[in-house]
# Entry
Amino acid sequence: MMDLTPEAFTKAMQMMNQQGGAAQTPRQVDSYEIEDRGVEGEDHLFHVTYRAAEGQLTMYGRWRKIGPDWKVADFGILDVQPSTSPDAATES
# Structure
């Protein structure tokens, strides 16, 4: 959590509380893809897509250099696509 700005940390805690205290996470991420979305002011923008047996999740992230460190300034979910495989719920 040291890589989050105070605002991003607050957002993370709010998201966890909305999900009953535990985020739904895949058992194992099989692959991911990072897409550079450019620079806006002092923020560097990225989209990250995670793929797992349960489906895929695309998130956005804003990174900002604060002093000597890079920190996540904002993030959020852009898209969630459940797996179309009938075995996704039982795959490990």
Q: What stands out?
A: The two ends are 28 Å apart (CA to CA). Residues 6-19+29-82 form a domain with the Nuclear Transport Factor 2; Chain: A, fold (CATH 3.10.450).
